[in-house]
Amino acid sequence: xxxxxxxxxxxxxxxxxxxxxxxxxxxxxxxxxxxxxxxxxxxxxxxxxxxxxxxxxxxxxxxxxxxxxxxxxxxxxxxxxxxxxxxxxxxxxxxxxxxxxxxxxxxxxxxxxxxxxxxxxxxxxxxxxxxxxxxxxxxx
Length: 140
Ligand SMILES: Nc1ncnc2c1ncn2[C@@H]1O[C@H](COP(=O)(O)OP(=O)(O)OP(=O)(O)O)[C@@H](O)[C@H]1O
Ligand SMILES: [Mg+2]
Hints:
The chain is of the alpha+beta class. The chain has one domain (2-133): Heat Shock Protein 90. It is built from five helices and five strands, in the order βααββαααββ. It has helices spanning 12-26, 30-51, 84-89, 95-99, 105-112; strands at residues 2-6, 59-66, 70-77, 115-121, 125-133. A five-stranded antiparallel beta sheet has the order 1-2-3-5-4, with helices on one face. The longest helix has 22 residues, at 30-51. The chain is globular. The termini are far apart. The protein binds adenosine-5'-triphosphate and magnesium ion. The site of adenosine-5'-triphosphate has 15 residues, from helix 2 and helix 5. Adenosine-5'-triphosphate (ATP) binds next to helix 2 and helix 5.
């Protein structure tokens, strides 16, 4: 299921609403659903803040999928991409690098999900992949 939404601040409440509905239907537990929602919101906020230069119109693409094992979402933009120097700091294979970094967005996306991946090409855009495994035990 794919959604294309204008990358504007006004779209953020709509994104939260759409995601809440989809998460509810997916059968994912309440806690996991809230965590996943937070991660998606952080990714969407980043697109509004950084992906497109002022005056340039662009979209936030959300693509959801659900299998027996997991709920997944791709959050994409066709914006300027993330500075490669910065991406090194956010090397997902190196947990320390994310935890010690300044922004809380990527940190939250990683902490709130089971899988987190950033793919970004300068000048072409960014794809954030987030997933949450189903059927796990929920804890606080
Ligand atoms: N979609 C994107 N396109 C371009 N740059 C991005 C995108 N998402 C993130 N960035 C860059 O990555 C940096 C880190 O993002 P992160 O969400 O971790 O922190 P932040 O947005 O700076 O702070 P916070 O999320 O705490 O408000 C941003 O400052 C921005 O430079
Ligand atoms: Mg952020």
